[in-house]
């Protein structure tokens, strides 16, 4: 990865609007190659939208974004060639089986059939999906779908990996497997761009963190940098609540809630 | 009542929300045009049955009157109870399972569902026919007996109750995807056969009257066995009331009431059973083996550019698993054999100077294209979250479209070859000019549909389950498909009639090839704009498929 020019991910004044709703509002971001980057924010902050723009699923309204120097709009094919993505909702073709889906993905990346077959077997084995190789994806459990999505994101050996809520709705065994794999990928020099609401995992895994709110970055740096910014020595959760918690919630009460009539 | 108001309020809000976009407004206009076409169909059914009943009613023969009522009421019952199951209209009706979390009793929910059933669009097809039968079978022959109208009304109510019960039973007990698909495929084949069966009566034959009479005469064993079903009971009741046999009529009304109560009880039981399981389809593990067909397909698609081949391969797998794809492959031989057999009785006959055999073969090829029409105008319907895979991969949008088109073209070709084989078995192998012309016309129409479908699929996308047999295409897409098929028929007509007028049969494939070349050129020219539309409107497609 050392010979790769520029940052792994860079956005300059990135905007994305859905009608009147501004999902991403002038986002400036720079993620160094080889880093494990945690991208945090409350619900509706623009995390998934940003990932969708960076992975080419949707187009930005304004601004620019690049993966290892390749613009995601003008050089979309080159940018996607070096990118892997695990989306929040799976993004799988449910009526294919696991092996067929991996073959489809491999061919979409222009890989040779033999290579696809070799890597596919290895990935299915590793993800403990080999026994279900002929089962349709629609019949997979949520965890199995996550694992297959993960396998599909890795089959072409990406340099940058985007993970949108990879730990959501999975059991501890699958979670451990994914964490171990992420660790190995980081050691192999792959840049990992992760969003997750499970802040303990982000705190443990990520070397760099950005927190966004209303489509804008409100804090960016290592955990120590964030602590310095907020002036606190607390956990990431406490820092997060301080930055985007929008005031205390404990004092709020609903006037009609109580033992009276429904 | 408040719950009912709430349900209507939600439906109204959703309908209005659907109109607040250009696509929604366009769909409204197209939907109105389609509704007009459906209304014409319903009117034709009403007039047809009205005429049958009128002819029977002016007779003094009690047997003829009862036969007229029997034919009319069974036809209406078929459209009321069977057709909604086949088309899946029942599963798209009011879904009460979403209201389960609210403090509404199951009894209320069942009533709401039944009330909603009366307003279901699928029943609007036969309501006019029931009205027409009241006019021609009761009011016109006179003297009008209120009792007859009441019995007909009771019969209509009974049909709606049984329609709901049958749809719910089908949804509850046909949960196995394969069983459901099989039942629907058999049902569709039955519809096709029944709809063309009257044509089996050759009205041009010398003894036509006798043959029509034979056709309309119900064999005694069928008459006896069917006597227990509501259309037969209602028919006997109406005839008995007309002839003043009140005792018989009273007893038959009792049977109708028993059927009505049974329908309500079965409907309620199925409703409860469906709600108990949450209304969600049961997932069944499906395992497939690699067939020789798969190997051949893989070898062919291997020769294509990687991404185009991958998309085409995926598309074919989906098509061959889909309810529509499987039904098409099963219906094709039936729809080829029947017209070919019928045309075989008129050896040497010409239609506007065109040999009837050629016309039938071309019709078969056009039918093969029409079968995939709905797949072309709503090409991303089955993708759901998989749609995202296209955009995270390093491929161009035009490669996605080309791959998808290629998948349908291969299915179209398979249907055409299937038609050719069945035609050859039934009538012998057609001459090479006819075969070439037919296949080129099929190719031209398929490319034409893809060209238009590439735009409608992106501009008016609709979500649709793979195993669904209903079209689920947008009204605009459906209307465009009909227009495209008509254009294809006109172009095909130019080819065959042009050559026939010039008396040079060999000109047919040449003219067809010229039209094919033009269509392919236009397709090529529109591919990039269609790809740009796909790229620009991907957010809307994500949203429509429920993936974004």
**Strand line-up in the sheet with most strands of chain A:** 6-7-8-3-9-10
Average of the residue pLDDT scores of chain B: 79
* Cα gyration radius of chain B (Å): 26 Å
Q: Low-confidence parts of chain B lasting 5 or more residues at pLDDT below 50? A: 278-290
**CATH structural class of the domain at 1-82 and 160-167 and 190-247 in chain A:** Alpha Beta
What is the percent of helical residues of chain A? 25-40%
The helix count of chain B comes to 22
Morphology of chain B? globular
- The name of the CATH superfamily of the domain at 1-82 and 160-167 and 190-247 in chain A reads P-loop containing nucleotide triphosphate hydrolases
Features:
heterodimer, A: 262 residues, alpha/beta, Rossmann fold, four-stranded antiparallel beta sheet, 10 strands, B: 548 residues, 2 domains, two-stranded antiparallel sheet, 22 helices, 2 strands
């Amino acid at each position: 990865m050392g010979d790769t020019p520029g940052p792994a991910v860079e956005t300059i004044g990135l905007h994305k609007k859905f009608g009147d709703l501004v999902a991403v509002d002038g986002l400036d971001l720079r993620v160094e190659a080889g880093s494990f980057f945690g991208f945090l924010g409350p619900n509706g902050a623009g995390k998934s939208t940003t990932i969708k723009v960076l992975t080419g699923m949707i187009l930005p309204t304004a601004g620019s974004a690049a993966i290892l120097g390749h613009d995601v709009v003008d050089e979309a094919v080159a940018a996607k060639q070096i990118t892997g993505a695990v989306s929040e909702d799976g993004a799988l073709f449910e009526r294919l089986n696991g092996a067929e889906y991996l073959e489809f993905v491999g061919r979409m990346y222009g890989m040779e059939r033999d290579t696809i077959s070799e890597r596919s077997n290895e990935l299915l084995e590793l993800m403990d999906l080999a026994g279900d190789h002929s089962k349709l994806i629609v019949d997979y459990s949520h965890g199995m779908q996550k694992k297959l999505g993960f396998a599909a994101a890795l089959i072409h050996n990406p340099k940058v990996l985007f993970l949108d809520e990879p730990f959501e709705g999975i059991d501890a065994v699958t979670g451990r497997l994914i964490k171990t794999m992420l660790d190995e990928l980081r050691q192999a020099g792959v840049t990992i761009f992760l969003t997750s609401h499970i802040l303990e995992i982000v705190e443990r895994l990520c070397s760099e963190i950005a927190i966004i709110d209303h489509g804008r970055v409100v804090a960016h740096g290592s955990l120590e940098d964030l602590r310095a910014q907020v002036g606190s020595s607390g956990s990431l959760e406490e820092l997060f609540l301080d930055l985007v918690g929008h005031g205390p919630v404990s004092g709020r009460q609903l006037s009609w809630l109580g033992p009276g009539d429904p | 009542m408040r719950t009912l108001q709430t349900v209507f309020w939600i439906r109204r809000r959703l309908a209005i929300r659907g109109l607040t976009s250009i696509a929604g407004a366009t769909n409204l206009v197209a939907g109105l045009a389609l509704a007009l076409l459906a209304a014409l169909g319903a009117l034709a059914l009403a007039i047809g049955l009205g005429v049958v009943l009128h002819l029977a009613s002016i007779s003094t023969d009690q047997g003829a009157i009862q036969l007229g009522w029997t034919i009319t009421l069974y036809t209406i019952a078929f459209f009321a109870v069977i057709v909604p199951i086949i088309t899946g209209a029942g599963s798209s009706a009011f879904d009460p399972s979403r209201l389960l979390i609210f403090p509404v009793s199951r009894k209320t929910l069942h009533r709401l569902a039944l009330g909603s059933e009366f307003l279901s669009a699928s029943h609007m097809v036969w309501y006019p026919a029931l009205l027409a039968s009241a006019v021609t079978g009761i009011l016109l022959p006179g003297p009008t007996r209120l009792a007859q109208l009441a019995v007909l009304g009771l019969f209509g109510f009974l049909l709606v109750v049984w329609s709901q019960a049958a749809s719910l039973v089908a949804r509850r007990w046909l949960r196995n995807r394969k069983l459901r698909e099989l039942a629907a495929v058999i049902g569709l084949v039955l519809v096709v056969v029944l709809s063309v069966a009257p044509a089996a009566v050759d009205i041009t034959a010398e003894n036509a009257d006798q043959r029509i009479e034979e056709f309309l005469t119900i064999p005694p064993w069928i008459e006896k066995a069917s006597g227990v079903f509501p259309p037969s009971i209602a028919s006997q009741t109406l005839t008995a009331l007309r002839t003043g046999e009140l005792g018989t009529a009273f007893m038959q009304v009792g049977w109708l009431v028993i059927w009505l109560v049974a329908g309500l009880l079965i409907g309620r039981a199925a409703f409860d059973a469906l709600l108990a399981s949450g209304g969600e389809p049961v997932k069944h593990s499906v395992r497939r083996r690699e067939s020789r067909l798969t190997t051949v397909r893989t070898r062919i698609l291997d020769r294509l550019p990687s991404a185009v081949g991958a998309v085409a391969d995926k598309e074919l797998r989906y098509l061959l698993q889909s309810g529509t794809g499987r039904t098409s492959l099963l219906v094709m031989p039936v729809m080829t054999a029947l017209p070919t057999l019928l045309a075989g009785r008129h050896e040497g006959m010409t239609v506007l100077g065109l040999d009837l055999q050629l016309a039938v073969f071309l019709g078969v090829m056009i039918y093969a294209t029409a079968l995939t029409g709905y797949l072309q105008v709503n090409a991303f319907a089955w993708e759901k979250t998989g749609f995202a895979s296209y955009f995270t991969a390093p491929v161009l949008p035009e490669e996605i479209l080309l791959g998808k088109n290629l998948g349908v073209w291969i299915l179209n070709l398979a249907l055409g070859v299937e038609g050719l084989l069945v035609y050859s078995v039934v009538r012998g192998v057609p001459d090479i000019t006819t075969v070439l012309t037919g296949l080129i016309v099929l190719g031209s129409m398929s490319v034409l549909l893809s060209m238009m479908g590439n735009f409608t699929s992106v501009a008016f996308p609709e979500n649709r389950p793979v195993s669904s047999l209903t079209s689920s295409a947008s009204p605009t897409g459906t209307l465009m498909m009909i227009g495209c098929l008509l254009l294809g028929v006109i172009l095909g007509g130019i080819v065959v009639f042009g050559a026939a007028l010039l008396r040079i049969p060999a000109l047919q494939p040449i003219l067809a090839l010229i039209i094919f070349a033009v269509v392919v050129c236009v397709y090529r020219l529109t591919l990039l704009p269609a790809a740009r539309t796909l790229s620009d409107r991907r957010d809307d497609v994500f949203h429509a498929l429920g993936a974004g």
